């Protein structure tokens, strides 16, 4: 089964990616970890930050081992430094 993921870029990913989102057609079943690996291959400039991102669907943080559903929007939330 085919699905389309939309990754929303926030923080430094927004600056590195030069866009607010990236659509990625994939085949199901698919874990978040596999989807992030595919995104890193497509956009290698994002790879170092992707490894440290929290990921959310709606208002729920998701684990990298979770299976993704069709046509999902995933917010990528890089770590924030501050005091």
Cross-sheet strand order for the largest sheet: 2-1-5-3-4
| Alpha carbon gyration radius | 12 Å
Class by alpha and beta content: alpha+beta
Major sheet details:
5 strands, mixed
Say which CATH homologous superfamily is assigned.
Beta-grasp domain
CATH topology: Ubiquitin-like (UB roll)
Poorly predicted parts: none
- Gross morphology is globular
Return the domain count. Answer: 1
Which range does the strand content fall in? 25-35%
Helix content: 25-40%
Task: Assign the CATH class.
Answer: Alpha Beta
Query: Quick check: average pLDDT?
Result: 91
How many angstroms does the end-to-end distance come to? 45 Å
Encode the helix/strand succession as letters. EHEHHEEE
Second CATH tier, the architecture: Roll
